[in-house]
Sequence to fold (197 residues):
Amino acid sequence: MNSLIRILAAVLVVSMLSGCAALVVGGAAATGMAVHDRRSVGTVVDDRMLRVRVSDALHRHDSFGTDTRLRILTYNGWVLLAGEAYDETRIELAEEIVSDVDGVRRVINELAPMERASVGQTSTDRWISSKVNTSLTRIRDIDGFDPTRVKVITARNIVYLMGLVSSDEAEAAVEQARTVRGVERVITAFEYLDQPA
Fold:
């Protein structure tokens, strides 16, 4: 418990020095969620901060304006990019930019070369992600499975799953996600507990 308090205090001090209130909220939320996470508290906080740095690096570039939709998920230093980046040139540029961000171990680039999704599609994607998260709570036949260990985002009805899981957990999560109405495809970016890296 003392280490959690020290990490939270460090996040608070860093955020006060940089003037970023969002970091405090993100750090506190990350610390609370780390209770169920297989990552260390420090890694959870690092991944939250990495997502902010990746988003900032992409949005500072002129090529990523209102005609792009960048969905970013980070886990254990892996960065998943999903959404729409207008053309192949921007997709490649996004990967280059993200690869140069400090702390990125791997980039999984799932951006599509097309115009930004409509507001209706964006709402549908959020709804699907919410339903997939709920559906994961129905996995009860795997001892020790915790649905909060599977991170979910959706773009154009394609569901992306990330996390540190066993092969059985991964298979069950994919099968459960496929049962959600509106899901066209499920793509995984899992790290496996029971397979060599």
Notes: The radius of gyration is 17 Å. The chain is about 45% helix and 20% strand. The first strand starts at residue 69 and ends at 75.
